[in-house]
Structure formats: structure tokens, C-alpha cells
Amino acid sequence: MILILIVNSCRQELIIYNVDDTAQKSDFFLNAESKLSNVRGGDRWLKILKEENEKKGFVAKLKDTKAVPVWDKVIIDKVPKNMGLGVFGDSDNIVNSEQRIIIPLTQDGFFMSSYIVASINRNNEITYLENMDNSTLYGMVYNKSISKDIRENIMANIIFINNRAFGFKKFINVPGDLFSDIPLDSTKTTKTIKLVEDDSNKNITPNSMLELMCLIYEIDDPNCSCHGTITSTKCFYIYVGGGGASSGEGSGGEGGRPGSGDSGGSGVSNNTPWYLMNPNINIYSYNTYPRAVFKAMTDYGIVLQKEHMDYMQSHPDVTNSILENLEYSNGHKAVFFYNFLREIWYKNPKPNSGILVNKFNSFYDKLFEINPTTTWFDFQNILLPYEDTNHSILSELLNDWNNPNIVKPTLRFKNNIKLNNIYNQAKTATNFQQYLKKFITDASVAHLMFDVGLVSNSNHLAETEPPSNYWIKIIFNRDKDWENIPKIIILDTFMHEMIHAEIYRKLLSLGSTHGNIDVNKITSDLLHHNYPGLFDYYVRYTKDDAAAQHNMMGKHYVEIMVNFLKQVYGNKYSDIEYKTVVWMGLKDTRAWNLLPKSERDLYETTWVENYWLWEK
Q: Which domain of life is it from (predicted)?
């Protein structure tokens, strides 16, 4: 893992940062048993620490009284005999110590506030216990009366623990005399180091328990055990050791040459620490969660502005949701929330944060499961408007999105009460999917979406868009007076557009490029006669895709559509009325024109005479 040391600054902040005074208190040993069960020697140390606390109450005496241990990131190893660990403690006891534990502490779950070092002798008796906080650290690493080697090792200790437990890669205000034999990078303000695990597969190693810290250096050291992993190195032992490889980004990377601009496993290319990325704001004036979001964004080169931070500060519920959803993040997710913050901060009045959180927590993961490159624009199209939404509608929406066998409605669609009610009727029909499967045996509409919006032809009740990124969207005309359109016609529109969608889906399965229909692939298969029947219509009417699909419906789907309407409405309407509704949606197709004139006249007459009588 590559880490950056920043050696000059006007501020004297060290590696461990102060956090809010309002950080919550928690039991010191809470979750320790479960966390340490996966650490070799962890159970033994937990028993020793609990007994020590019962005898001497050391937890109550800790300097960092509000902190919580990060038990799954502890380091257990042999005590170094030659590194002067007892500079500020009982050196005789240290010499006789056999093993030690290093426990990182946090007050907020995101930043290390201090750490504990404890050692034991061969009788499992505590020989040394120290809580290293900011003031202790400052007093050690800036105290030039202490050996430079010891101070460098203490600093390396902090760097390793902080990176291992919290993923920090950049550190500011390292005393200028430390690591003086490492050349500065091209910026003349930073130095790059590489930490190498002594044994990445064990928590306690049988021989050396010390981590090797390899520093990029001008002179090659043939005695360095990590020789060959980077061009040139200097090695020395530091306090921390024995632990497994860090799970954070950057483990196993190659070091870059100083000043070359190359970077190793951390991928760091900007020498500015994350908390100084935006010089116009004081990041530590914000609470824990806004700071954590800011830090997470910088991992992807995104720098939030003051207005974004102010919004998160004043809307902690939204901020907490963002942070939870950024877990296991990727660049697409970071950009998603950045665009959300860009838009939301200037909206007045602000949208109901509870509704937003509900939407994020309910639909965010599902959207990214369906499409890993989901954008904020996609989310808007599905789950906006911002206005408060009836909780029952949101509940329905969530159920629809969690059911892989039905279409996915947008919030705009669900908020149209009439369309939504008819949709609820349609989706409960037992043969709703089976009707489609009569012609397309492997039909699936898992990526089909219902929406209300602008359509290309204002006379159309609805239109089905060709596939885009594996989504096929049916859009109901927002400008239609739906309240005065008969329900049976709306129900027929659902099935009519569903068939369009299924034809698109089938074409997509035949020839797809990134979720879009690839005409060249389809044409190639058609030329080789791989798909007779359904695609015969496509090639016959390729100049007018809508006409081709309508002709196909007229020949193959009329009976399916009529039976679907009957299943929903039963004997409420006559056979002629059902057929009229279906055929009037297919007027002027080749199949319509092949009907006897008397039959066409009957359907047109029935339409005119009954339209205003059918239930609205």
C-alpha cells in the first residue's frame, strides 16, 4: 500500500484527529467477543483485558473516554526488544514482556481518535498499558530529545494502524526531520512510502513479529526482504506487525518512483490530503457523517462544495442514507449522489427528507442491481416528483420493484390514480404472463417500465420506446384526459403496449449491443433464417417498425388480447365489444384490411355507439 506523508503545513495537526464532543458513548467491550473470535490470540487477550479492567478499572481512566475499540482491526504480535517501546513507561517491564496488542479507537466510526498499546509477560500479566491520544503523540514525535529512529518508528506505527483500520492514505504535518533521508516528490511537499506485511496470512508469526516498512529511496538496499518489489528501498523495523494484509484499497500495489508521477496500489495521484481538497471550507466544522461522505467522494476525484456540505449538515437523515448507500461504492454511485447534491441544495422549499430517505433506502440497491451504471437522471425519471407521496403508493411501488415477474412503474405512473388502479387489476390477472408466453415462450418483462410523460404523437394513448440500457419503457400520454377515457380501453392499451415491449425484448435478445437493439445483428440472423415467424414481420415491414408490430398483433395476438379483457371484466361486456376494443387499436394494419368489410363496419359502429357508455 502506498501512503503519502505531507511534511510541511501552517497547521500542526497530526495523524489522529479530534472529533465531535457529541460522539456517542458505548460499552468498551461491546461486540469484542464476536470480533476477536476471528483474530488469532484474540480470545486470550479479551480475557486478560477484562480481568485487568476488573482489577484496576483502566477503561474509566483512558484519556479517550468516549472512544470505542475497533476490535476486528487489532494487531497482536511479539514485543520488539530493540525499539525502546518503554520510552514513556516502565522499561524494565517492557523488556520482560512477551506479547502486545494494539487497539485502534474511534469516537465516530470513521476516524481514529486514539489507540491503546498493552503488553503482557509469559504469565499473561499486563506489563504496560498506554492510551496514545493526540497530545501524547504530539509530545513524542515532536520531542527532538527522543531518538529520531524511535520517533520515526512511532510515526510509522500510527500510519500503519490508521491505514489498516480506517483506510487513510495521506497524512499532514509529519515533523520535518523525520524520514529525512527520503527524497521529496516532485511537489517538494510530499514523500511516498510503501508498507509491506511481514506475513499476510497470519496474525501472529513464529519468528519476526515486526512489520517491514519499505521507503522509496535513492540507494538500493540488498538486505531488504521486500527487495525487488519496488525499484529502490530502505528498510527498518517499526512497532506494528504480524497482522493480515489491509483490506483497503492499495494493498499489493507497486511503488512509484519519487517525482515520476507514478502511483502504486493506492491509486493516489493528487498529493493534497482529502480534508484539504476544498480550501474554501473547513471540513472539521462539519459533523461526522458529512465529513465521511466528503472523504468517500474524494476517493473518486469528486470534491463537494460548501453548499453540498451545508445541505448534508442540516439534513442528517439524508446524509446517513447517502453514506449507507455508498458502502461498497463504485464511481457510478459516487457520481449518482454528487449529481443529487448538485440539484437538491438550491431547491426551495427543500423536498421532504423522510420521503427522499425512504426512496433511497427502498430503491437504490434495486436500481443498481438491474443497471450497475444507474444515473441520478434515471432515478429522477422513476422516483420523482419530489412532492410528498402517499405511503400506500410508495409501499405498492416497492412491492412492484421487488417482484421480478411484473413491470416496474415509475412514481409518476403510480400517482395517476386511475392508471394505477387499472394496472393493479391487470397485474393480478392469473394469466397475465401466460398470454404473452403463448407466442413468445421465454417472455420476460423484468426490465419493462410504465411511465407517464410526453409521447411523440399526441394522438396516441401510449407509446413503447425501443430498448435503452436494457430498459423498455411504456409511456402513457400525460396530456390525455384519462378520467374520461373508458377503463376497458385503458386496459387494452396496457396489453397492446405490453406486446410491443415483448417484441422489442425478443429483438433485443436476438441482437443486442449494450442493451440496445443492434439492427445489423438482427438482419444477419434473419438472412440465415434462424428466426422464422415472429421476425418475418420485422423484415417485411422494416421501413415502419410500428406497422410491422401492429400487423403481427393483428395476425397473432387478437385472441390473446380479447381473452385478457374477458378475464378482467368477465361478462360485463359482450364478445363484440371486447373484439371492437382490440381491433380499433389495430385499424389500418394489413390484418385489419383483410377482415371482411362487414366485420370492420360492425367494429366501427360498436365503437361509436358504446364509447361513451363504457365505464369511465
A: Bacteria
